Known about the structure:
- By secondary structure, this protein is an all-alpha fold.
- It is built from seven helices and no strands.
- The protein has two domains: about 60 residues; about 120 residues, no CATH class.
- Helix 4 crosses helix 5.
- The longest helix has about 50 residues.
- It is elongated and about 70 Å long.
- About 25% of the residues are buried.
Amino acid sequence: MILVPGWMWHRGPVSRAVGAGLAAGVFFGAFVLVEANSWAAAGVVFVVLSLFYGTRVPRRMDRIWPAAKDMNRADRATVVRATRSGEAIGDPRLAPSVVAYAGALRRAAEEDRLRRWVVLLVTAFALALAVYDTVLGSTGESVASWLVAVLLLADLMWWPRSRARLLVRADRAEASARRVMDAGCATGDS
Length: 190
């Protein structure tokens, strides 16, 4: 959910499914096309991964931040944009949603952190496969294998820092939202 761009929250569930599914299908299908030089194999990967990610991503989004279903698209996008950028929310009625979304980002980051060993294992395998394909494979296999290895290595180096910066911004937005909520409670008590 952390990797889901803010603009996807502006969309409805079907549009989010199509966006996430098509992006994954095209991305991985292109790798298969380069490696295997087979439109049929690329088509199968496109269909299978489009359906898989098109189902998984929106379900995970709904599970990790269930309150989003009850919000209209514009409010949901406003909350996501403010939280991900660390800005104060302009609308006090959305402050509780900023707090909830910041908590959802922390939960998603913790879940992802527990899965990082899988990325490390897959990266080691991808590097070994890239070396093997360079020595014994075709040019397409070698290019695709090294692209995957480089992307996985970049993920291992880039993602932890990027996630940490996102969580710092979410904490800043949450603190601001809590001040707005506290000010609203103080005004309401007077």
